[in-house]
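Bench log, entry 3. Co-assembly request; chain sequences pasted below exactly as received.
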Amino acid sequence: MQIEMNKALPIHSRFRRHGRACRGHPCESPNGVDARDKRGHDTRYAISMTISAFLCSTLLVTPAGAYKAYVSNEKGNSITVLDTDKLEATATVKVGRRPRGIALNKDGSELYICAGDDDAIQLLDTKTLKITGKLPSGPDPELLALSPDGNIIYVSNENDNLVTLIDVKKKEMIGDIPVGVEPEGMAVSPNGKLLVNTSETTNMAHLIDTQSKEIVANILVDGRPRFAEFKQDGSELWVSSEVGGTVAVIDPVKRELKQKISFDIPAMSKEAIQPIGISFTRDGKRAFVALGPANRVAVIDAETKKIEKYLLVGQRVWHLAFTPDEKYLLTANGVSNDVSVIDVASLKVLKSIPVGAFPWGVVVAPQ
Amino acid sequence: MKSLVAAFCLLLVAVPVAAETVNVKVGVLREAHSRETLSILDIPAADDTLAGALLGVADNNTTGKFTNQTFEAIDAKLDEGDDVVAAFDSLIEKGALFIIADLSPERLLAASNRAKSKGALLFNVSAADDRLREEDCRTNVIHVAPTRSMLADGLAQYLVWKQWRRWLMIKGSHPKDELLAQAFRNSAKKFGAKIVEERVYEDTGGGRRSDSGSVQTQRQMPLLTQNAPAYDVLIAADESEVFGGYLPYRTWDPRPVAGSAGLMPTNWGPAHEQWGALQLQNRFIQTFRRLMNARDNAAWLAMRMIGEAATRTASNDVEKLRLYMLGKDFSIAAFKGVRLTLRPWNQQLRQPILLSDGRMVVSVSPQEGFLHQTSELDTLGVDQPETKCRLK
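Structure output for the full assembly:
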């Protein structure tokens, strides 16, 4: 008999394991920073609102790291707003049903929210935190990508094997591109010429010329590709395969697969390692990959592709976002209902911030 | 290091696009399932199993547009007395060397015998019999459906996790009910539960439908379950659908029911929505205007396995695809939260087991804490050291 059973483990201790919030995932910042000691919650919020109101002024001194992050809560039907200086939630906004993919416009004044069960992309004014309208998206939008000029949104529509193009200003659908079964991951190359869509059941990265709107290459990757991300210099495209358990590194110029990165965590079953979100540092030297139910973020040397470290975060980690100063990396943890804050310089997990139910996407505003 | 990386790169292949269109023909050899179900919700539709295969064809053809491959399903439905070999031969004549088989064990083995000389490969999508993966295992049969032992283990792990370790078991009087009961006995032993008493419900014949059925069953089921030793959960072993569905809410003692009714282990149910499953449910409902059952799903998955292997190998050669599916590079996504692979020793698909009451998925096994050195999925069912399978 090769099966070991935790027969002796009483139920309550299992629940404690499920509810783990502090182990390797500190509840308090180790350097004892707590913005609430110095400034009251309301004052602090008022300051950031003032900053938002005077965006054009360059004279205002902003404390380092005072950015706003937005987290979509898949089951909470809400967006949680975080202050990345205080590292706490400052507001929760009710939005449409099943919000997952989110993206900010160029100046951060508007948040685009894929509300899958409402078949729409909602627009959230980030100053007033009010929904101001919606874009037509086709059925069940899940992830979106913006053209570098911010004028076109590309959306994956899982239910009808299409990528939909939306003109942001006119709020009109301006075309669609048939792709593989269950399109999901979306990314646009930094020069805006190449669009990538991943199809979860076809298991391909479809490379699409944004001018001709034609597929120019189909690259087979491992099972259930969910997310695509370009390096900022456009030299590499990484695609994560959730079920295959690997990240494919693609040369977008030669349009071919360069290599696959796989993960090995001691005492963790291979099946539990499910790569999803990918974030590169701006210099392209380091990558962070969220590993889903492995509850870890892999730190990868993006040049040698060697894995440097695994960071323990909350449960079922989906997507990642840097603060613009790259001081922190935020992770949306679907099952533990929180956001982990990774200190990028020390590669330590500083804190977990409780957010809404089943956090999925995360973005940080540019200022 | 650089040369290592370079060597590694050479091994990788781009999308293998065939110069000429590769056509993959898949037969769907299916027998009619009983319409005598306890719940009218379970009466099989005319396109039972076939619909799943057709959805798999549609998915594969979307991918095939990019790889120059086309897929096709050819239906062959057997009535009770029909000769399975004749139906099998007619599929072979139409060029279908991959056969999705929704057959009884006897018919499956007859088809497997016939497949030997024809070079065909069968995909078992419904027969749960462990013997088909053990003493009667065959090289030309891949098992997509889970075994009774996998289903029973999936349920047992959850009941033990719940600390519901004392089971009262009531089994039906048909041979397949005894096979299921034996699977529950084995699971109880394996995971530390105790069957406090076993009872038999004799099938005295007759139909399932009447206009005043509940009046009688409301009186019969308490009698069937009274004077039992202390127990936590009632296990129904009733594959024949004679009494299991009547047990919930009618037991003498207020106890939950599991097994063939109540909390049921299965490979798929129409209420499953996690891990993207909702997308597959939506596609199925939109196309066929009904809900996807366990057989439909297994047929879809068999078709996807064929499609995946054909895509990766750029081939429709039976042996090439079979070897690919058994190899270390093969895995398939099936909306179960983990990748599925084949057990090489008996060609059984490893898979999580859903526990559902028909309306909700209550849990998915393997449960946390049940460990295994190869794959936690191998805590479900007969494992390699115990196998009686010698593939031939």
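DSSP finds three helices and 29 strands in chain A. The two ends of chain A are 59 Å apart (CA to CA).
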